[in-house]
Specification:
binds S-adenosylmethionine; globular; 3-stranded antiparallel beta sheet; 268 residues; Chemotaxis Receptor Methyltransferase Cher, domain 1; alpha/beta; Rossmann fold; 2 domains; 7-stranded mixed beta sheet
């Protein structure tokens, strides 16, 4: 049954979630009550007031993650927004292979990777592009998300595949895992490094990135949070580095990036 949340509790909760995770709930009161009411009861509270109070006092990361999982969506699938992958294959990869002829290291980040389809997909494009040369390159894809739950699924790498995954890839990059399930083959699995990372935190990875995929993640963030994150992505990228965001998303007009294709940007 739906529970009601007071103005004060709603604002406290929304402010906390925004400050910690960037997720903007201010216009989402109904979503908050509908998605969290069940949890309030399951956890033995008789209403939102003690629930919010304890959640914000304890700041138990496990509980916070369960709350966050209810409030965000982890929806993702193989071959999503394929235009990005086509641009990646036709334009970005040839350029990076030329650029990194000496060091043979590509630095690619799937930021907000959810259950892993996106970084595995990126890896498949890379392996396909490099063919027999792939072994000479370090093409490991960094894949991060805030949710341990989706990362656990990602690491297992077992999926129901949509028809849009080419049959040749099903044979090459997956092994049957029973029924309609397929397991990502080791050559692809071992090419993705999964890590927990909150996109609100400073970006301190060792390498500067050639490409950052951050698709369908910033939809939850308000403009200042998004702008600040895009600035951190910019600083964490190599000159000429790319940023790909979801097709329904936009960057601010005053972004330092230049637009090179739909929802695809390049550091100047
Ligand atoms: C809809 S999925 C997008 C998956 C994939 N990039 C795609 O486009 O299919 C959004 C992901 O962003 C993650 N996310 C939301 N807020 C985040 C934050 N502050 N830091 C890191 N990941 C976050 C969620 O956990 C979720 O898995």
């Amino acid at each position: 049954m739906l529970k009601t949340i007071s103005d004060g509790d709603f604002q406290r909760l929304a402010k906390f979630i925004q400050s910690q995770y960037g997720i903007n709930l201010t216009q989402k009161r109904q979503l908050v009550t509908s998605r969290l009411s069940g949890m309030v009861t399951e956890w033995g509270y008789d209403g939102f007031e003690p629930f919010v109070k304890q959640l914000l006092q304890e700041r138990d990361p496990n509980k916070l993650e369960l709350v966050l999982n209810k409030l965000t969506t982890n929806y993702t699938f193989f071959m999503r927004e394929t235009e990005h992958f086509q641009f990646f294959e036709k334009t970005v990869l040839p350029e990076l292979i030329r650029k990194h002829q000496r060091d043979k290291v590509l630095a690619i980040w799937s930021a907000g990777c959810s259950s892993g389809e996106e970084p595995y997909n990126i890896s498949m494009y890379i392996k396909d592009f490099l063919g027999p040369q792939a072994d000479k390159w370090d093409t490991r894809v960094l894949a991060t998300d805030i949710s341990q739950r989706v990362l656990a699924t990602a690491k297992k790498g077992v999926y129901d595949l949509p028809d849009t995954v080419p049959d040749s890839w099903k044979k090459k990059y997956f092994t049957p895992a029973g029924g309609s399930r397929y397991a990502v083959a080791p050559v692809i699995r071992n090419n993705v490094i999964f890590q927990t990372f909150n996109l609100m935190d400073p970006i301190k990875f060792r390498l500067k990135f050639d490409v950052i995929f951050c698709r369908n993640v910033m939809i939850y963030f308000d403009q200042p949070t998004k702008d600040a994150l895009v600035r951190r992505f910019y600083d964490a990228s190599q000159p000429g580095g790319y940023l790909m965001i979801g097709h329904s998303e936009n960057l601010s007009k005053d972004t330092p990036y230049r637009t090179v294709a739909p929802s695809t940007f390049q550091k100047r």
